[in-house]
């Protein structure tokens, strides 16, 4: 349980920087601030994935709640309008908890109102439950749903009719939108639904204003529900919003089912539960179905990311293997194995679920994710079934494939494409680079070496000794060339990329993959030097900077309009996921000694406090490069959470290279 105390809840400035998110395993979610005040266009009580896990729509933006006690009205809602906060329901907010659902505790006079929000796993549906104490009667609750019915990147303006029909049948309200979108079903325990359509104008979203985007929206209220709390025993109320027709007579069974599902995820978690339990539950929020079929993927981050292949493969060990969800990992690997084109895996899927192929490294990360899967499961039969794909990837990279990706005379991977960013540093603003990041790129060649070593390992396992010898020889050629090409004797670290006669000397964190992957391409004598430079110039409490602070191109803060943020994204911003490979570098160099473990414990301990800010119970995408290292970007990022879990499992829990999941006694498949 994570609690946010009254002092923060009643301070809007502090509370606005604490958000919550509930997810449904389809890519949909429910999210807002702990005040219930939406500060982003992406916030919404029901954000549905109409083509799972993408094509997301804000259906219900929020609900406005008014409680009537002995005739006196008190609003529990809080909204930001231009120059004004109204109403001020936050003044009654006593506490916010994550238990595991978001729970809001209000106190009005001597009455206590507890509100709980949870999603129905596998459905575009969200439930809101209210408990009122003491149960003396004379209390009414008015609930006004505020509808948006728009793509989650856009804004709603009250120019056109939003609803074409409202049908009330008992305790079910069916709202049919004017647009060709699914109807909304409202199930409730109230006395009645009173239809009264009205537009509420000019809701202001502070985060959108800060980011330089349109920040005002109109929302439509089709009417309101009235719940009367009778004495005695009748002190609860609920409402459920769904895009699918359901048979609903109450929500307790739905709540119990979801509590049971999440309890199984953490049931046998033994170590550091206060830190790891929220991370394991956060890990679950990123695992989604694709196309409502029995295949899985990983959402890269909330709120705006879809499933990106690179992020998925880097996140897979922490989100699925360290948490014991081996079958989910296998489903993900199998799904992506079917998407190869000329040895290239997709970079991401667009809003229509079409794979987009514009990456030079995702195929190489597939080898990493598969090898990690084998370290946990020994499922070499599955690996054997993937050999045709693995051979295709290596052959394509060797002989040449999309975007000019091929091996050169130095046996290293190079590519010539300069109109598209093909590496993970894919958002470079304006004048931040004088030379495109192409040619021979340091982390891609570290991954190339690793892929060859993993293939050698598989050939040995399958007793294909001649093939193993060929891959071993190819890997050794790569290793010899890697040092000759990338090592700078003058700088005592690795060039970030080399393109013909151009050597990129900027100090970047990408070289940490040359030291932190399971098969390190960098010989031992060079690793300590790289580590020393990174620790002195790139390491921060929350991860590695993307550029050293002495560089004239360094951006200390990720803020302002889109142009400024794009520039800072990879010009100094701190990325959490890189911290995982820094920790693995410590182990690769120093072993799992008590001293190394103590250092890694220190790295992880910083994030215990972070779980109570940003997105409660999760970890942000990036942080500012300079003090005070403010959290930025997506509020809940898959590979940030994943790497903290992977390091906790692999570098702190195990000594023999055979990894045992943190949730140790069961294998969770769904």
UniProtKB/TrEMBL annotation:
One of its GO terms (molecular function) is amylo-alpha-1,6-glucosidase activity. SUPFAM superfamilies: Six-hairpin glycosidases. InterPro entries: 6-hairpin_glycosidase_sf, 6hp_glycosidase-like_sf, AGL/Gdb1, GDE_C, Glycogen_debranch_arc, Glycogen_debranch_N. Residues 282-646 form the Glycogen debranching enzyme C-terminal domain. This is Glycogen debranching protein. GO terms for biological process: glycogen catabolic process. Coiled coil: none annotated. Residues 18-225 form the Glycogen debranching enzyme bacterial and archaeal type N-terminal domain. It comes from the Bacteria.
